[in-house]
């Protein structure tokens, strides 16, 4: 699979055709998706229209936009004009098709990217595994008997399986970072409020973030930059101008980098610890920085998620309980019973944890932590074991991501292999609005070979 | 909180919220609510200064 940067450059220079790239992408999806179950819709007709428009533009000799001709796909909670927004739920199949594209899909279109489809997810984004009972599980390309992670599992597995160079997903508690970790790809969860969420199916208004996935850091940067910009239709979207990422201007060697200990060490399995050590050694990071409110922040995220997610679905759950995802419907109902005093306390704890984290950023530019406690479990696993403790698998895969998204910090997840057959991700965490630092460190790790995307042989094109 | 009190709370609030679930469903919801209750202990009783704002987003 070619990178987005290589595709855009090849098309701009007239070396390859937009239609040629698109048809090859559609053929790869047709060939590989039956094994992985990433796509819930392939928008071939729309994609051919968009590709033709790029070809027409090229013929005029006008400069092409930055992602001209680059195929991409979106988690099926993004509105796509003319398609029903499923958000992973069978209950939504009867809804009217979206009347317009989501804001980020519009941004990607303006940047010249070609939308090829919608991707599988946990129902209503409530899960870390993409074991969707209605649409089937998305499978991990590195071993299809293992989960892809979630809730943006289709988005991550589509990249890891080499079907498209860029996908979009959402992250409320870890849903970009967990599947990135388990599938061995790069994922960016920007600062809360950086990217507009308008035109997407919400889960938890106070915690929902959107962001891109890619097989290399350059593609992550290109897609992230294409989607920036304020949006009055999303009340959480920051009213600040786009800040184009310039990683070349950042001297990574001069950054102060610390390793989060405590909670993040306690809940890291052997491979996760090894991955963090590997990254830390390469970056000469300082050890064991304590974020004392990490557990409280995770608890606050759990309560806010339960209360807001439960409240959002209460009326439909009362009427249509049987049509909801069996793996999460009882958790949603339980969330709708949370006392308001717990929710308000959780929101205040969130603010307190944020203030503690800001004191850490007086001493550090980047904080490192594992993205998941363990690599991908097999599909259907009920429990995982972390350092001798057995805990429930489905709610616990985000144990190391929740404290960070709860306080809205930007994070880039990078894949590390450590000699294992399955990858695991490391979170590179920065102060609010410093996505550029996360991305600069990620690119350095990629260039030095510490972090690496590996396309599994079964998903390689015949000419690779 | 003991299990009997939790189950009583869950049954009462389910009714208050308008759910009509069978016994098995109530049992599963109680299991989930027990997990939330356990999880919430890590932040429920932290003493916070009055100045800490819950930071709701409503902007008229």
Helix content of chain B: 55-70%
The oligomeric state is heterodimer
Please outline the major beta sheet of chain B.
Answer: none
Overall pLDDT score of chain A: 97
Question: Can you write the helix and strand succession of chain B as a string?
Answer: HH
Tell me how many strands of chain B there are: 0
Q: Return residue spans of chain A where pLDDT drops below 50 for at least 5 consecutive residues.
A: none
- Helical proportion of chain A, percent range: 25-40%
**Which term fits the overall shape of chain B?**
elongated
Number of strands of chain A: 17
Largest sheet of chain A: 11 strands, mixed
| Most extensive interface | A-B, 37 and 34 residues
Structural class of chain B: mainly alpha
Instruction: Calculate Rg of chain B over CA atoms.
Output: 16 Å
- Which band does the percent of strand residues of chain A land in? 15-25%
Trace the largest sheet of chain A across and list its strands: 1-3-2-8-10-9-16-17-13-11-12
Characterise this structure.
The complex is a heterodimer of chains A (464) and B (60). Chain A has 464 residues and is α+β, with helices and mostly antiparallel strands. Chain A has 15 helices and 17 strands. In chain A, helix 4 links the parallel strand 2 (71-75) and strand 3. Chain A is globular and about 60 Å long. With 60 residues, chain B is mainly α. In chain B, helix 1 crosses helix 2 (23-44). The longest helix of chain B is centred in the middle third of the chain and has 22 residues, at 23-44. Chain B starts with a helix and ends in a 16-residue tail after the last helix. The model of chain B has no long low-confidence stretch (mean pLDDT 91). Chains A and B meet through helix 10, helix 11 and helix 12 of A and helix 1 and helix 2 of B.
């Amino acid at each position: 699979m070619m990178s987005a940067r290589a595709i855009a450059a090849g098309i701009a220079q007239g070396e390859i055709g937009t239609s040629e790239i698109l048809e090859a992408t559609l053929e790869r999806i047709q060939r590989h998706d039956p094994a992985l179950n990433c796509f819930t819709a392939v928008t071939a007709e729309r994609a051919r229209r968009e590709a033709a428009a790029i070809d027409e533009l090229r013929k005029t000799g006008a400069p092409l936009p930055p992602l001209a001709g680059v195929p991409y796909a979106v988690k099926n909670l993004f509105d796509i004009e003319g398609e029903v927004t499923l958000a992973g739920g069978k209950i939504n199949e009867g809804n009217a098709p979206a009347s317009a594209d989501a804001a980020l899909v519009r941004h990607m279109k303006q940047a010249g990217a070609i939308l090829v489809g919608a991707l599988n997810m946990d129902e209503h984004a409530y899960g870390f595994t993409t074991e969707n009972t209605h649409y089937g599980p998305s499978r991990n390309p590195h071993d299809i008997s293992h989960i892809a992670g979630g809730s943006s599992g289709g988005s991550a597995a589509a990249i890891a399986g080499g079907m498209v160079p860029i996908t979009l997903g959402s992250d409320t508690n870890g849903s970009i970072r967990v599947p990135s970790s388990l599938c061995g790809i790069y994922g960016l969860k920007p600062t809360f409020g950086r990217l507009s969420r308008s035109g997407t199916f919400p889960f938890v208004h106070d915690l929902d973030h959107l962001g891109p996935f890619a097989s290399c850091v350059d593609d992550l940067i290109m897609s992230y930059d294409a989607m920036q910009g304020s949006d009055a239709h999303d009340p959480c979207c920051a009213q600040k101008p786009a800040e184009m990422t310039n990683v070349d201007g950042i001297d990574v060697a001069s950054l102060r980098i610390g390793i989060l200990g405590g909670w993040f060490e306690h809940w890291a399995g052997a491979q996760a610890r090894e991955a963090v050590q590997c990254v830390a050694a390469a970056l000469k990071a300082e050890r064991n920085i304590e974020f004392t409110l990490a557990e409280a922040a995770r608890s606050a995220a759990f309560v806010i998620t339960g209360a807001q997610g439960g409240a959002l679905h209460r009326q439909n759950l009362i009427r249509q309980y049987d049509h909801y995802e069996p793996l999460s419907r009882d958790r949603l109902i339980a969330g709708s019973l949370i006392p308001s005093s717990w929710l308000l306390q959780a929101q205040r704890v969130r603010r307190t944890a944020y203030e503690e984290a800001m004191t850490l950023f007086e001493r550090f530019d980047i904080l490192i932590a594992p993205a998941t406690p363990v690599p991908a479990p097999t599909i259907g696993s009920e429990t995982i074991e972390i350092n001798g403790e057995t805990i429930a698998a489905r709610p616990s895969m985000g144990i190391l991501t929740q404290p960070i998204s709860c306080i809205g910090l930007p994070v880039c997840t990078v894949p590390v292999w450590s000699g294992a057959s399955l990858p695991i991700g490391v979170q590179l965490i920065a102060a609010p609005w410093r996505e550029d630092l996360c991305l600069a460190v990620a690119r350095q790790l990629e260039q030095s070979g510490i972090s690496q995307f590996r396309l599994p042989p079964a998903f390689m094109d015949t000419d690779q | 909180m003991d299990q009997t009190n939790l189950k009583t709370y869950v049954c009462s609030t389910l009714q208050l919220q308008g759910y009509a679930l069978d016994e098995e469903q109530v049992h599963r919801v109680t299991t989930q609510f027990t997990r939330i209750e356990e999880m919430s202990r890590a932040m429920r009783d932290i003493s916070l200064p009055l100045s800490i704002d819950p930071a709701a987003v409503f902007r008229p």
